Amino acid sequence: MADILTEPKPTIKKEDYFSLSFVLSRVLNSGVIMSIEKNDHELKGLEKSIAKLTKTKYVSLFNSYTGAIHGALWGQDIGYGSSARLNHPSEQERKFVQWLGVHIVTEPDVESAYQSIAINWDNLGQLEQIVATVSGKAPVLVLDLTGLGFGPVAAIAANEERIWKKAERLKIFGAFDLQTMWTQEESEPELQPAVQFNYRLSPLVAACAKIALLRRNSAS
Fold first, then answer.
1. What pLDDT score does 153 carry?
2. Residue 123 has pLDDT above 80, yes or no
3. Own/partner long-range contacts of 29-38 (Cβ < 8 Å, ≥24 apart)
4. Where does residue 77 rank: exposed (0-12), middle (13-18), buried (19+ CB within 10 A)?
C-alpha cells in the first residue's frame, strides 16, 4: 500500500503567532544585517535578555546546541581526556561529547558539567519557573532555543568570567576575535584554543529569538 501523504506539522503553532510581521520588519528595516561590527548589537541584545532571565553575569551565544555544549565544557577546561557527568543526555549529546574525547561518568557525587533547557513555544511562558528548578545545580546553564523555529540557536549562561572567555575564544568571530580585528591587538592569548569553530550565531536569528523572549508573556 502506498504511503499516505500527510501535511507536515508546523514548527510554530498558529496560536503562538505573536507578531511575526513585527519581528521581521524590526530586523529587516534595522539596516544591521550584514555588518559584523553592527550586528554585534543584536547579539548583545539576546545575551542581555538571557542574562536577565537566568540571573547570570555572562552569556555566550552559539549557532547550534552542540556548539553550546562544546563551549560549556571547554569553558571549564573539560576537553580531550577529561571526564564529565551529564544530566540525562540525549543520544546525540552523548555521542558528541564522546567525539570531543570527554569520558562520561555517572557517579552521583560528581557535579554535572551543565544543566540544559530546551525552549519552545509550549514552555516559553514558564521559563522563569523552569530556570529556577535548575539554577545552581551546575556551573553552566545551556539553553537551546532552536525549538522556537527561527533557526539553530543556543546559549550558555554562567557566573564565572573565565568560562565565558574560554567559550568565546572557541568561536571564530567571537568577542575576542572582533576586538582583535578592530584594535589589531591580541587579548589574553593564553586562552586561545588550538582550533576555533564556526559557532557564531546569525544576528537575524538572534534578533528573532530576542524578541520572542521579550514578548513571551504577551498575548498571541
1. 95
2. yes
3. 30/207, 32/203, 33/203, 33/204, 36/173, 36/178, 36/181, 37/178, 37/182
4. exposed
